[in-house]
Design brief:
- The protein has 311 residues and is an alpha/beta fold.
- It has 2 domains: 3-193, Rossmann fold (3-Layer(aba) Sandwich), CATH 3.40.50; 201-308, Nitrogenase molybdenum iron protein domain (Rossmann fold), CATH 3.40.50.1980.
- It has helices at 3-23, 28-35, 47-57, 80-88, 103-108, 152-169, 174-199, 214-219, 239-251, 266-275, 293-308; strands at residues 40-44, 61-65, 91-94, 114-117, 205-210, 223-228, 256-259, 278-281.
- It has a 4-stranded parallel beta sheet, with helices on one face. A two-stranded parallel sheet has the order 5-6. A two-stranded parallel sheet has the order 7-8.
- Strand 1 (40-44), helix 3 (47-57) and strand 2 (61-65) form a beta-alpha-beta unit.
- Helix 1 packs across helix 4 (80-88), helix 6 (152-169) runs antiparallel to helix 7 and helix 7 packs parallel to helix 11.
- The longest helix is centred in the middle third of the chain and has 26 residues, at 174-199.
- It binds zinc ion.
Length: 311
């Protein structure tokens, strides 16, 4: 790194604490965070991880969510302001498996906090994105499917990884973090058992909107088919795609076509009309919601039961 870059970074580090007081002066949360240095400053990349961090850290941390409300995290890129905020944090909680494609830039900028990859210890499924061979995407991390949080067993792992990271950054409260994680993991275990039991005797094939449910399907012995053959919900739908999905639905006697909260339901509706079925939401839990992780997963379960457990 040349001297100029180093100076620029030093300048940023010095200027930010000052500007943050000016810019966020009226925001009580920010004032609090700059005043109370005893708390861990934790930034989470997207909503489920933000929720997990808050459950594990509670009042011992200052939790900040990076991707704004209503924004879908797949294609999201941080602004300069976001990067400045990240530079101030003690820990940045990421999903990993290439879901946060901005993380390398942060490392290049000599971020001196801890980047916590919550996918650590999880067996990764190969991404279907690779089949597209899009040149533009070749520098992105497309080595794996990032949607691990939709499998409660892996969510438990992510919660555990967060608790370990908090404990090592703040050993004094280590037991507090580990206890909170253990309690919440019990709830996730119950959720897992419930899904396993309630779907065990039902049909196995479902049509999701984008490829978000591979880990979920693997865990519960289901077969995921998708409208968009991509890990990114913004993939393109062609007439040929529609045709294929319609014939797949007919072949498998599928009567429910899934959609997502953030996408236009028109595509799913066209398919549903064609097969005389209906559209329900199967949420990938990627955007901020009023409901928490467990409630959203229960809603997904209800909709899956409606799709799969017909007599
Ligand atoms: Zn996704």
């Amino acid at each position: 790194m040349n001297t100029q870059t180093k100076l620029a970074i030093v300048a940023i580090l010095i200027v930010i604490p000052l500007t943050s007081i000016v810019v966020y002066g009226t925001n009580t949360n920010q004032q609090f965070s700059s005043a109370d240095n005893s708390k861990l400053q934790v930034i989470s990349s997207f909503n489920p991880l933000h929720e997990f961090s808050q459950i594990v850290g509670q009042e011992k941390i200052n939790a900040i969510l990076l991707v704004p409300v209503g924004v879908e995290p797949h294609d999201w890129e941080p602004t300069i302001k976001d990067v400045q905020q990240m530079q101030k944090s003690d820990l940045i909680i990421i999903n990993g498996i290439g879901f946060e494609n901005w993380v390398d830039d942060l490392i290049d900028n000599e971020y001196d906090g801890l980047i916590v990859d919550t996918s650590k210890g999880i067996m990764v499924i190969k991404s279907t994105d690779e089949e597209h061979g899009d040149e533009e995407d070749s520098d992105h991390h497309l080595e794996g499917d990032p949607h691990i949080w939709l499998n409660p067993i892996f969510a438990i792992k992510q919660v555990g990884n967060i608790a370990l990271a908090f404990s090592s950054a703040d050993p004094e409260n280590g037991e507090f973090y580990m206890t909170n994680a253990a309690k919440y993991s019990e709830e996730l275990h119950e959720l897992d058992l419930k899904i396993r039991n309630e779907l065990s005797t039902c049909n196995k094939d479902f049509i999701a909107f984008h490829d978000a449910f591979s880990y979920f399907a693997d865990e519960y012995g289901l077969n995921q088919h998708t409208i968009i053959q991509s890990n990114d919900s913004h993939g393109e739908v062609t007439a040929k795609t529609l045709e294929n999905v319609i014939s797949k639905a007919r072949e498998l006697d599928i009567k429910v076509i899934f959609s997502e909260e953030t996408v236009n339901t028109k595509t799913s509706q066209i398919i549903a009309n064609e097969i005389g079925g209906k559209v329900l939401v199967l949420s990938p839990l990627e955007i901020v919601s009023d409901d928490d992780y467990i409630s959203k997963m229960n809603q997904n379960l209800e909709h899956l039961k409606e799709a799969l457990c017909r007599k």
